[in-house]
Design a protein that fits this description.
The protein is an alpha+beta fold and about 200 residues long. It has three helices and eleven strands. Strand 9 and strand 10 form a beta hairpin. Helix 2 crosses helix 3. The longest helix has 13 residues. It is elongated.
């Protein structure tokens, strides 16, 4: 039988960006005020931050900023317990970082994994196409990368970072999900890992 479901047609006009102005140029983040015509044809002001210099609508979300690494070793998931200044508390997170000028994605994966944990990449399981990291406030795009890691934990972090890296079993990860605070991406990866749905790991 043919499905009766239909995609609901949009009413009114399309949302349209009609203006963009930089309102602050910080050391790492740039603040922009966007002016849209909403679906009712009225102007709507919207604020975003970007790591990139934006000159027109075509620049928004055009460049990839960084990577997030979901790493495993011997059937356990790598999680970082780190203090994040943005929320003023310690949360569980993925190893992650920004792609530096002249770096390839692979260069960034190896560098960030080593700097934050001391580990190295044994093999890359998968690299997902870049996705938006915080669509409500930023055009920042990052790759989510699945790897198998190896080596010994070492601290190569700066004086501005406080990170404890460790590997967790499925049972330990499931318990952490019920009691600890996570970044959203780390929480999602941890959930699927705890359900034995991590790519490249057999049941």
């Amino acid at each position: 039988m043919r499905s009766k479901s239909r995609r609901r047609k949009r009413k009114g006009i399309e949302m349209k960006l009609i203006g963009m102005e930089k309102v602050k140029d910080g050391k790492y983040l740039k603040n922009y005020e966007l002016t849209y015509l909403n679906k009712a044809g009225r102007e709507k002001k919207y604020e975003i931050v970007s790591r990139k210099e934006l000159t027109d609508a075509g620049d928004i979300g055009k460049k990839v900023s960084g990577i997030s690494i979901a790493a495993v070793n011997d059937g356990k998931l790598l999680l970082l317990k780190e203090f994040r200044m943005g929320v003023n508390k310690t949360v569980y997170n993925l190893c992650a970082g920004m792609i530096e000028e002249g770096e390839t994605v692979m260069d960034c994966i190896k560098r960030e994994l080593y700097e934050e944990t001391g580990l190295s990449v044994k093999q890359v399981i998968d690299i997902l196409p870049a996705s938006f990291a915080a669509v409500a406030i930023s055009d920042m795009k990052t790759h989510i990368v699945f790897v198998e890691a190896e080596g010994t934990f070492e601290d190569h972090t700066s004086e501005n970072e406080m990170i404890e890296a460790d590997f967790y079993s499925r049972e330990e990860t499931a318990a952490l999900l019920q009691t600890e605070e996570f970044s959203s991406r780390a929480q999602m990866v941890a959930y699927f890992f705890s359900k034995n749905l991590f790519p490249g790991i057999g049941k």
